[in-house]
Amino acid sequence: MRTCEYCGTKADSEICPGCGARMPYAEEAPSKSEHSNVQANVRPSYHNVYDKEKFYQKSWFIILMLIFVWPVGLVMMWVQKKFPLAVRIIVTIVILLIAIGSIV
Ligand SMILES: [Zn+2]
Question: 1 and 32: one domain?
Fold first, then answer.
């Protein structure tokens, strides 16, 4: 998309449909540059990380730990950033409330 320098009309044509002036060349989209392509390749995808998980990094294992050995499960959950932050906070609060309740 080009923008006419004279009247501000946006068009893809060589000649401005608004005033008939020659349109300037459109700026290249930043996403098509080589630099951002390299960055996209370096960034690991979620699926690649998931495939390389060891058994103790699986969600179900952390959930089992949270149920049976909750301090271990809590540490694993936060260290591995297994669940969304909101879920981690809620799980931590719930477990701490149960733990406090069982002590008192
Ligand atoms: Zn124009």
Answer: yes
